[in-house]
Amino acid sequence: MSYRPPTPRGLKPKDLVGVPWRVAFALQADGWYLRSDIIWHKPNCQPESVKDRPTRSHEYVFLLTKSEEYHYDHEAVREIADIPGQRRNRRTVWSINTEPFSGAHFATFPTALVEPCVLAGTTKGDQVLDPFFGSGTVGQVCLRLKRRFTGIELKQEYANIAFKRLGWE
User: Fold this and answer.
1) Which of 125, 126, 135, 137 allows an S-S link to 105, with CB 3.0 to 4.6 Å?
2) CA distances (Å), 36 to each of 27, 28, 68, 89, 138, in order?
3) DSSP of 27-42, one letter per residue?
4) In a domain, 24, yes or no
5) CATH of the domain at 49
């Protein structure tokens, strides 16, 4: 790399910062319930040019709730079991390919990743908040699943992509 950002206080150069876990722990300290960590395994991950660690082929998805009692529709997200015709409770490792997107957004989530999150935590007509709306994948999934949604996006360029993708231009 020709540029390396400054090392955050308390870490050594080349340490993983662990942003996803730091955010999850900060939310937990702020009163949220951290119920599950889910590994999004990307079988078709992008290659990395690193030579001193393995190529990362996963990201984290966290199930957080604001109260001890919450809606979780385990039936809506059951997965195929090893026994033909049987279904089981969803596991915490989700192997989902990334999906190509022709827009100019570099971190588009696949709809197959968003769908079980929306199905597990909502029912038809519920409101979904996406504070990092990006290209509008959450909105696209919500429309298909008959959920309402609010997307927050700071970059006008990405908001324009989402509007176009949702047919709102």
Assistant:
1) 135
2) 13, 12, 13, 14, 20
3) HHHTT-EEEEEEEEE-
4) yes
5) 3.40.50.150
Query: How far is it, in rounded angstroms, from Cα 125 to Cα 117?
Result: 15
50 residue type, one letter: V
Cβ partners under 8 Å of residue 120, min gap 6: 63, 72, 73, 74, 76, 77, 90
Q: What are 19-38's pLDDT values in tens digits?
A: 999 999 999 999 999 999 99
Question: Which two tokens mark 130?
Answer: 């996406």
Residue pointed to by tokens 């001890």: 68
- How many structural domains are present in the chain? 1
Instruction: With respect to residue 31, please indicate whether it lies within any of the assigned structural domains.
Output: yes
| Cα end-to-end span (Å), the chain | 39
Q: Tell whether the model's pLDDT for residue 143 goes beyond 80.
A: yes
